[in-house]
């Protein structure tokens, strides 16, 4: 029988709590739900009002994975949904607005992916993102070098950047923007990626072409497009271990000498939150948002 729990007055069905989702560490679905419940205070503000794309992996990272953008079958009627314009026609998508919706979505075993805009202004970017993806033998160490260059370049335009791990091999840089067309944010991000490649040609590539990427950091500017999404801060990732897309300090980026220094698992987040709070909190402060030049 599927257990039912009450979350903020909502009845949420939970299933297979003892199922091991991360075989490398024995991390269970129940522990996944506990992680999301205990990080909800910092995670929810980054999810709120952003249409959710689910990367589902119900049998763990070694099983089937699939992306879902439309509202999943069986979604409770109390979960907020909204119609989202898309080039192929409008879609109805989930908005995780509260703890009950978060736990319901986490029970589906999902990575949380969100666009750089909110539902009230689709296609108007209020965040800028760079996904720094290292091509072996490059690692997160090289990503940090590129991140520091981009941080200074953005600062020259009056834009303050913040960093988080991707939860995989690389880094994400994020900045709050005064809302602007996603096309403009994409064009600006591409310009900076091209500049980075010119400044560090042995280290950076701005094109996705696989043959160009070994030993370099691909500065992916394309996730600023309105149709694209990025792993939400604090989401678990579908990897061998329960890795988290975790915010990091610039001191940690500056001092990184090995990838392990910027690898964070679910159990690492509670002490980090106690020490730092939400390092990406400034992204939520409209008064601190930058404007594109």
Automatic annotation (TrEMBL):
Domain DNA ligase D polymerase, chain residue ranges per copy: 28-279
Pfam families tied to this protein: LigD_Prim-Pol (PF21686)
Keyword set, alphabetical order: Ligase
GO MF terms held by the record: ligase activity
Highest taxon, organism lineage: Bacteria
InterPro entries found in the cross-reference section: LigD_pol_dom, MtLigD_Pol-like, NHEJ_LigD
Official protein name in the record: ATP-dependent DNA ligase
